Amino acid sequence: MAERAQEEVRDQEEDHDQDDVGGKEIINRNFLSLSQITALSEENLEGVEKKMEEFLNLTQLKTSLKEAILLDYYTAGFWWAKEMNFSLIQLSGFMDLLNFILENLRDKHMTLGNNLKELERAMTGRGKTDSEEGGDLNLFSIEQAKAIIDYLVISLFKHYKEYEYLFHLRREEPVISNEDEIKLDQPAVSPSASAREFQADINEKLQMQEEA
After folding, report:
1. What is the pLDDT of residues 137-158, one digit of tens each?
2. Cβ neighbourhood burial of 96 (10 Å; 0-12, 13-18, 19+)
3. Residue 43: other Cβ atoms inside 10 A
4. Who's near 186: CB < 8 A, 6+ residues apart?
């Protein structure tokens, strides 16, 4: 089984390199390597969390709420994608996308509207994003792309203000105990109007691409 997994990684790395030639450059593919994705795919949820902590070099989990939130964000995202039965290369592409939109918020201080525009460009392959990094969302079927949009709206865009507060406004405070699972406060509210409009608009465009 290990040999088959290694062969799949090699084959997918070759396909990945071939896709780069003449392809649309959208998002960064360097977040997690395929060998790391393979290792994660072989774990249960607890194992995924432990390996993600190692791969992301999160060393302050007991004292940093930001690191705890990052671990939860990436672990939950990977587990969702795994349960979608994505291939290794699709798992890699999804994690790149997950990282891409969080970096837009955290590092580039993008507004919700601008980040949604970047995601639309990435998902529809129209032009280059402001980051001018590489990627190829042809990895996913139309139905998979719609599911990804729905997940991103629920997991990040619905709570954009909370994430902005966490990364840009909130002063880091020590975490007293990590015995209980630490999660970002996510009040039971509907997604913002802009996120809902984006969700409907991008799904319509993806459907038009499928019918073209």
Report:
1. 578 988 999 999 999 999 999 8
2. buried
3. 16
4. 158, 159, 162
